[in-house]
Amino acid sequence: MVKHKAFMMSNLLEKFRFLLPQDYADKYTTYKLQNRLMNYYGDSIVIQPQQGQGKSNIMFSSSISIGDAIKAASQLKSELKIAQLDLEIGSSKNTTSEEQILHTAANILRRDIHSLDLNNDYYPTPSECSLPLSIQSMPPNLTKFICWLGGFHTLSCFIACIGKLWADGGLRDLMVDSGVYAGCTVDQMLLGKQFNRSVRGLTLVYEALRSLWFASFFKWCEENDGIDAIPKDVWVMLSKCQAKFSDESESYKDVLNELTIL
């Protein structure tokens, strides 16, 4: 094994198949080769998956991956920036600008926050996280220094969180394989970009899943002879609710309330 090199798993698989019998080589997959290499080399290699459908994983003949190297470089850059600011403040003495003081204070706060040992048993109340309370406890000089997220950006971050949690869990494949959106477009949508498409795409997924849920429920009722047990009033209210939705009026909420009571 060559040290400190990176290999594509697809290329390694092609080379490994030459060593296998012809009838067995076609059935040998990248997943089997990856497990074999990890069992043999252990901690001396790192497998780095790539984002995107059809992309091959990367194997590093080292215990340090690209992500670890980038993280260490970012931390070193932050520490060097703090040291440079401290040096500039120490050398300038009375000529320190307000911007230098604000940046130094922000870096110190960020460093202290990273070093905190938070207790997972405590959860802040909504009143403790409110914007007015935060502004009251903040020095006036910092109110224009800290950028607050508006409603648009907050919703974009929320969509990005959905993509972070569920993209690899089947959400991306569902949106792409349905033929509604292209793969690159879905990748942008699940990153919180393409805002209009993201909202509509997630709404379509929600409505499709709800339709399948209702269809499965009625199929189960039919198979278990449970259709007759459903009151006729429920069918009448469902018809009214569908009609109200078609009219695009706000009166459907009253019908939903009556349906919930039933």
Structure description:
This protein folds into three domains: 6-64, no CATH class; 74-142, no CATH class; 151-230, no CATH class. The chain is mainly α. A three-stranded antiparallel beta sheet has the order 1-3-2. It has helices at residues 9-17, 22-25, 30-41, 66-92, 98-114, 131-136, 151-177, 183-189, 195-223, 232-247, 252-261, and strands at residues 6-8, 46-48, 58-60. Helix 10 (232-247) runs antiparallel to helix 11 (252-261).
Q: Mean pLDDT, as a whole number?
A: 74
- The count of β-strands is 3
Report the total helices: 11
How would a textbook summarize the main sheet?
A: 3 strands, antiparallel
What is the assembly state of the chains in this entry? single chain
What Rg is obtained from the alpha carbons, in whole angstroms? 28 Å
Short description:
By secondary structure, the protein is mainly α. Helices cover 63% and strands 3% of the residues.
